[in-house]
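Worked example (supplementary).
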Amino acid sequence: MSIIENYDLYAPRLIDEREYLASGHTACAGCGEALAVRLVLKGLGEDTIVSNATGCLEIFTTRYPTTAWEIPWIHVAFENAAAVAAGVESGIKALRRKGRIPDRDVKSVSMAGDGGTTDIGLQALSGAMERGHDMFHVCYDNEAYMNTGIQRSSQTPFAAWSTTSPPGEVSDGQRTWKKNVPEIMVAHNLAYVATACPSYPLDLINKVKKAKKLKGPAYVHVFAPCPTGWRMDSALMIKIGRLALETGVFPIYEVENGKYRITVDMPDPLRPVEDYLKPQGRFRHLTPPLIEEIQERVNLEVNKLMNKVNYSKPWEELR
Amino acid sequence: MAKRKRIGMEVALAAAEAVGMCDVDVAAVYPITPQSHIAEHLSDLVADGKTDTEYVTVESEHSSMSVCIGASGTGARTYTATCSQGLMLMHELLPIASAMRCPVVMSVANRPVNAPLNILSDHSDIMPQRDAGWIVIFCENGQEVVDLTLMAYRIAEDKDVLLPVIIGIDGFILTHMVEPMEFPDQKEVDKFLPVYKPYATLHPDKPLTMGAFAMPDIFPEMMKAKDMALINSKKTIVKVWDEWEKKFGRRYNPVETYRTEGAEVILVTMGSMSETAELGVDMLRDKGIAAGVAKIRLWRPFPVDELKAAVKGAKALAVMDRAVSPGVGGAPVFTEVKAAFYDADAKDRPVIVNWVMGLGGEDVTGEDFVEMAEKALKAKKGEYEFFGVR
Amino acid sequence: MSEVNWWEIEPGNIVFEPGSTREYHTGGWRSLRPIWDNSKCIKCGVCYVFCPEGCVSQDEDGYFTADLDYCKGCGVCAHECWPGAIEMIEEGG
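After joint prediction of all chains, the assembly is encoded as:
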């Protein structure tokens, strides 16, 4: 056991005990996104306004006339969570300046799934981030359009089954690799970009706290394992997040003003990618050549990331 | 009433000046010809500190409406402007803004919708928004643009209304005209327009949820509530227009009339064409034809009673449409006017002729209106015609 | 089934009561239920952290239990428990 694991063992007591997402919401049993939101909100606290895109989260938390949210929340449409959050931020800013609401820091946070962030929501996200609003965006990446029935998105991994990229006689499943949206966000010169996973709850909460403290746009990409869509036992929801890290499939890192830093160490050497793929029914059709292809690509991506981490060291060390 | 100074200004700039007087909290604007002058002048006012407004230069019209809805949710007074393709892009959000009762005010510089691309003027951008649940008011000249924009927030934010408002300003034909206009001074506007007191806001002091999803057990009730809200808003709109007349001496009505007394043929118009129609009516009257104009100012909620009262006694109506509703055999204003008369007694039902004119910025002159009115008078039954199309 | 009339709906369809999903007891969904063996429990709180429903709570003695009104029986707590103090048993068994 490394020191980090021991810390995780005893430090749950340091987490805010208040629940900002009430039980009784209708997420699937073992939903990674529900857990991720629950933890993110513990990092955010009550001085938050959430702008949510259409998706699993919005649907399972707000069936009229009930709501699971204990904080102010707004849902408008699918592709504009970041734009609505930008509006909320502008409104709060203007009203505070004019003295019409109490002079109290309220953070505007937009939340969306992978579809609502990286596909249909990319324009609004890019615009909001570029304009420098004091807000941040959390993407819950369950790697498909889960709410509408597990259709593929740009975050669906290579060779995964989805209802619109099913393997068949002439197809191996999803044909492209995951679009690297944290990199796109880094290119917007954001002060803070991070990836996180609910399997590492303290890391996730600390990242949210860091993003909240900033006075400028930030982006947090949260891995949200979906037992329903990934076709796996719901009890493995946390374990699969750990496997994603240990095989290098989903590295957990942060980029602060362009400097890359790994925040949860990956083992060296990495576990074989097959360990991550095996428990998931969506990869059941994989043949050894496909697994080999995935392994190569994972190695390449981890390599690229580690190069960036190394280059983030001070120039003096690089010379 | 003190005689106010009339200032000559481009109407688009005057619209921005009017918005600048309303203490708007958040304005989110994306440029599109011919609205761009409104966006530009408003940003000049913000840059010079003449209005304390968060000016968000969004990356698309869809985002400009999203920003307005989000800001409105926090209790801010919001503004945006667009037309044509921009309005079509925003289309997804318009029913959301009205269902969520966000009192956003939007200037629409009426311009045709692609394809083909045309940057001039017609009403084909506003017609697809008929069912969006917004209050829609059309302006005929620059003074109306100033007045109606200043009144828009008063109407939208009224606790009995709480609905978003579109102010229609014909692109180029009206937006780019330089006209003399009277502006009330800031103190008068401040007295007329109270600070926006939203009935519910997004704030941690009182957490609430906006935009929950609804199942069929309650959804129809929500739609009925939305319909009734728009229908009932007419009362408040007229009340605000009454108050404006008392304070500033200018009268606004859901349907305006010009020389309709004893008119045999009445032109039914909407937007800037109304003033040219008046020229046509003068020419007709000079020729001995009893003609008049009924100008629809309030497009939504549709003023059935006021329209019928305005055209009472006419033998024929020539309904002008500056947009096409393909496949129907009648353009939008025509079909609504016809529907308004369906239940009337035969003696109260005029012949209603539809003239589709002025599409894509085509110029329509007083003489053209004379021709259209004369042809309407000769019609035995309803007709659907494109004026001047080869 | 709602009995609300159209004129009684709050304008904008706003939901004013935070956390009102609590009236819906999702416990009826499950087919497995977690039980804690307190003799093995080291009171680390991991089961509480990883519950997607947030329905695991600590009693005065520091041991943990799931609120059966909401527990969906996903099994994450049992899987993650370090000393294996949680077992998933069949509902109705």
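Two points are worth noting when inspecting this output. Chain C has a mean pLDDT of 93. Chain C is about 10% helix and 15% strand.
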